[in-house]
Write a structure and sequence with these properties.
It is a single chain. This protein is of the alpha/beta class and 420 residues long. The chain is built from 13 helices and 16 strands. The chain has helices spanning 55-70, 86-93, 110-117, 138-147, 165-173, 187-190, 195-202, 212-230, 317-329, 341-351, 363-370, 377-386, 407-418, and strands at 27-29, 34-38, 41-43, 76-79, 99-103, 131-134, 152-157, 174-184, 233-243, 248-257, 266-272, 278-281, 303-310, 361-362, 391-393, 400-403. Strand 2 (34-38) and strand 3 form a beta hairpin. Helix 4 runs parallel beside helix 5, helix 9 (317-329) packs antiparallel against helix 10 and helix 11 (363-370) packs across helix 13. 45% of the residues are buried. The structure holds S-adenosylmethionine and zinc ion (ZN). The site of zinc ion (ZN) has 8 residues, from loops.
Length: 420
């Protein structure tokens, strides 16, 4: 019997209106107006805040929305901080959103947003509005939707800095089993340079550790887990994406009713500067934190502890495999546009192995401790796998691995195999 994956049904390419015929895949201009083209869609950015580099984050959001629509009767999207409206346009044209609310607090962007969205007919076949543009504070627009019981399937909050006040409003306004796409651009907090700020915003005291950008994602997910818990909900990260420009930390969360009963993945992490060992601790182990390798304690100064934050998987591998299949069906794989989406999603799938702990180890750090030249990453991965460890690359740092092999064992293996 042939088994078809759910994505084998109803394969539809994004519907691109005729007026969007692509001229190129990047920026473009003509004599009357400057415009950009992303995935074949034409739009203007005017004076609004727009980053071409956020392209991959938009691709992932659009894929997730289209994937959602395949198994749900409708797709209502709230783009709470839409800027020029490019992602609103993409949710309509590519994900097939049935209704989209594009909001940006800056009403000077109105003409621009309306101009960009006007390329999609504003009214559907039954005369109902397909898209609406507002200029309210994001918290207000989401709270008003909640009060009016006007719930959304996907809420995208493309915010700046570490403003986490949007989490609760977004969870209020999203449908159960719906998606919330959140952002942080606070690299200082992720790097442990503003522990009081990370504590205020995400409830996590973050100290400097050698995998700051993964901690940035975990801090954001942890903050969302906590906010969801307050409301009697639980959230699951479907994918977590770090991008160096900004930097930008983005996480797609699925929201469900029912408080998280198992706090296994919401806890503390430690890093030992002495031996390089990293460990996770549950709430039950508070007060018993020490380095299991060299016995250093936090009071020794060499053991740093951060948390509470998300210590579980950053992504759902099966879900990402479905997004990859969808990207392939849409011809987005190997098309040479932007970052290599296939490579990114495959790296994320590798990182989803539940055997892998938080953090990553830079190859240079292993080599430095082992006093050998840095081994080639592929060779080291294969050696560790032969030794029985789970290993993947990291989508965050190209010259690093994620592994359940402790640093001290990595060092021994490097000395044994790469001492030439
Ligand atoms: C990162 S930009 C959005 C970029 C856009 N999503 C994209 O993909 O190109 C953030 C936008 O949020 C708007 N903004 C800032 N604070 C806001 C708030 N409290 N409520 C609503 N919009 C806000 C800004 O005017 C800005 O256009
Ligand atoms: Zn140690």
């Amino acid at each position: 019997m042939q088994i078809l994956s759910p994505l084998s049904f109803n394969v539809k390419k994004p519907q691109i209106p005729p007026s969007f015929k692509p001229k190129s895949h990047q920026s473009n201009s003509n004599e009357s107006s400057d415009y950009l083209i992303e995935r074949g869609l034409k739009f203007q950015v005017g004076e609004s805040f727009f980053r071409h580099e956020s392209f991959t984050g938009r691709d992932l959001g659009v894929l997730a929305a289209a994937h959602y629509k395949r198994s749900n009767p409708e797709l209502r999207v709230l783009d709470a901080m839409c800027g020029c409206g490019v992602r609103s346009l993409r949710y309509l044209a590519e994900s097939g959103a049935d209704y989209l609310l594009a909001n940006d607090a800056n009403d000077e962007n109105r003409e621009l947003i309306v101009g960009n969205l006007s390329q999609i007919p504003q009214f559907g076949v039954q005369g109902s509005k397909k898209w609406v543009v507002t200029h309210l504070d994001a918290n207000r627009v989401m709270s008003e939707c909640y009060l009016q019981k006007d719930f959304f399937d996907l809420i995208d909050v493309d915010s700046f800095g570490s403003d986490s006040s949007f989490l609760r409003s977004a969870f209020n306004a999203v449908k159960m089993d719906g998606l919330v796409y959140v952002t942080s651009t606070d690299g200082f907090s992720a790097g442990g340079h503003q522990p009081h700020n990370s504590l205020a915003c995400y409830g996590a005291y973050i100290r400097p550790m050698p995998y700051p950008n993964e901690l940035g994602l975990r801090m954001l997910i942890g903050g969302a887990v906590r906010e969801a818990c307050v409301m009697g909900y639980n959230v699951t990260p479907l994918f977590s994406y770090y991008s160096y420009h900004g930097p930008v930390f983005r996480v797609m969360l699925r929201v469900n009713r029912g408080r998280l009963s198992d706090m296994r993945h919401y806890g503390f992490v430690s890093y030992c500067h002495g031996c390089g060992n990293s460990q996770a601790f549950t709430w039950h182990e508070l007060g018993k934190i020490f380095c299991s390798n060299c016995s250093a304690k936090p009071s020794s100064g060499s053991l740093v502890v951060s948390g509470p934050l998300w210590t579980g998987p950053l992504h759902d591998g099966a879900y990402l495999a479905e997004l990859l299949e969808l990207a392939q069906q849409w011809g987005w794989i190997g098309d040479g546009i932007g970052l290599d989406l296939e490579k990114l999603i495959k790296l994320m799938i590798g990182e989803s192995d539940p055997e892998l702990p938080f953090g990553y180890i830079k190859i240079d750090q292993i080599a430095k401790r082992a006093k050998v030249n840095s081994p080639p990453i592929r060779s080291l991965i294969s050696t560790l796998q032969k030794e029985g460890y789970a290993v993947s690359r990291s989508h965050i740092v190209s010259n690093a691995i994620k592994t359940n092999c402790p640093m001290t064992t990595c060092v021994t293996i490097a000395k044994d195999h790469y001492n030439y």
